[in-house]
Amino acid sequence: MKRFHVHMGVDDLAQSIRFYSTLFAAEPTVVKSDYAKWMLEDPRVNFAISSGHASRGVEHLGIQAEDSAELADVYRRLQAADAPVMAEGATTCCYARSEKSWIADPQGVVWETFLTHGDATDYGASPDLTRMQPGALLPSPTPAPCCG
Questions:
Q1: pTM value surpassing 0.85
Q2: ∠75-92-61 over CA atoms, to 5°?
Q3: Of the chain's two ends, which shows fewer C-beta atoms within 10 Å, N or C?
Q4: What is the arithmetic mean of pLDDT over 85-102?
Q5: Mean pLDDT value across the chain
Q6: Where does the chain cross the membrane (predicted)?
């Protein structure tokens, strides 16, 4: 079963962890010096926050697949969405090893589709999401901090 993903940029990580822990009535499943993540079952969402990035508020939305077949199904739908898809492939991002693809909707909202394969010890890198255009994703010439 797929899981909805939301990643938010925040100014004060500790304050935001307290707020969202109260809102969700749950502590984060991952906490790092610049990142926290809640893997909630009700609602079924992977909700992540990070500090130290340029953007604040919703950075991107996504769909987290639980196996390769689900990821392939979501990727087929991305390809049919009539917008360029950037297949990032295997990457380390947000303290996890994943396989990812990115797309921007007609309004420029960035969507990530991914399958996580395990934990990582560093935050990792990702495409420069600020370079995305409505309906298109422009690859970054140099890695940017993951998910921000």
A1: no
A2: 50
A3: N
A4: 84
A5: 83
A6: none
Q: H helices of the chain, where?
A: 13-24, 68-79
Report residue 88 CA to chain centroid gap.
Answer: 13
pLDDT of 57 reads 86
How much is the pLDDT for 130?
63
Correct CATH for 3-145 of 3.10.180.10, 3.90.1150.10, 3.40.50.2300, 2.60.40.10: 3.10.180.10
Cβ–Cβ contacts within 10 Å for residue 100, how many?
Answer: 21
User: Can you tell me which residue has the tokens 């991107």?
Assistant: 60
Helix then strand count (H, E) for the chain reads 2, 10
What number is the average pLDDT over the span 79-94?
81
Kindly state the tokens that stand for 2: 């797929």
Q: Which residues of 66-97 are buried (b: 16+ CB within 10 A; e: fewer)?
A: eeeebbeebbeebeeeebbbbebeebbbbbbe
Q: At residue 7, what is the residue type?
A: H
The answer to whether 21 and 12 have CB atoms below 8 angstroms apart is no
